[in-house]
Amino acid sequence: MRLKSSETKRLEFDMDLEAQWIVGFVDGEGCFHVSVNRHKEMTQGYQVLPEFTVVQHERDVQVLYALKAYFGCGVVRKNHGDRMAYRVRGIEHLTERIIPFFEKHKLKTKKGVEFQKFRKILLKMKNGVHLTPEGIEEIRDLKNQMNRLQYQRELVSN
Amino acid sequence: MRLKSSETKRLEFDMDLEAQWIVGFVDGEGCFHVSVNRHKEMTQGYQVLPEFTVVQHERDVQVLYALKAYFGCGVVRKNHGDRMAYRVRGIEHLTERIIPFFEKHKLKTKKGVEFQKFRKILLKMKNGVHLTPEGIEEIRDLKNQMNRLQYQRELVSN
């Protein structure tokens, strides 16, 4: 399925999402992920990259555009193969748009536990904690706890 | 994770689901499936088996119990490995509980297209169409259209 941009635009405005639908959909398909990568140009030698993503087959790209419109931030990009992803990066959008939404509208699956760790990391980053070596260690600890959950989930879906 | 039955019972009543959360979650994780199997004891030599399922890792079994409580039908069973499934079979429960819910609360992804075909098959079954050779053929046609979508989805998730 290839949609012209005018067509996705139209679909985007056709789809009215309710908060609880988003919570349910993210409970199923969403991912809160943080990576800590070596990066020579960063002060501490590491770059912390938090992201919120929802991946769908391209046939359902209009749902991703609707999420983008709802949150008023993020991008819709090709993921791999015929999958598309809605992705929000950047401390500001995550702490001002995504986190308050899921604080108000609680996730019902164990993805809520993942979200709580994600939230903790983001609040630390907002306070610049990731700019100290101790902060990087704290974040790495939290991130490793998240990844254990994600690893288990990957085993399940394969 | 092993939950005692008293514990799942408690969790079940703790979790209050809203219709839109269910729609979002099923847009992500639900499956409307129909199988047509050879069965010597059936009049037409075939058995038509429709089912609505939601599969989750056992850590989120309380969500499945909450769905069961919401719809007032179906069972929660081990799927395979550490996955659990909420499953509704049987023409009556499907046509009286599941189908009216998703008629009222529209799915937003292309799973809605799958649901429409599922619904058509169930309405035919309610009228006994699956008890004639032509009916079995009609159902098989609809089912094959559904399976194309499901096959594509499986390719995506692997």
Describe the model.
The structure is a homodimer of 158-residue chains. Chain A has 6 helices and 4 strands, in the order ααββαββααα. Chain A is α+β, with helices and mostly antiparallel strands. In chain A, α5 packs antiparallel against α6. Residues 154-158 of chain A have low confidence and may be disordered. Chain A has helices at residues 5-14, 19-29, 61-71, 91-104, 111-126, 133-157, and strands at 30-38, 46-57, 75-78, 83-89. Chain A has a single domain (5-157), classed as Endonuclease I-creI, CATH 3.10.28.10. Chain A is 55% helix and 20% strand. Chain A binds chain B through residues 15, 17-29, 56-57, 59-60, 63, 66, 81-83, 108-110, 152-153, 156-158, and chain B through 15, 17-29, 56-57, 59-60, 63, 66, 81-83, 108-110, 152-153, 156-158.
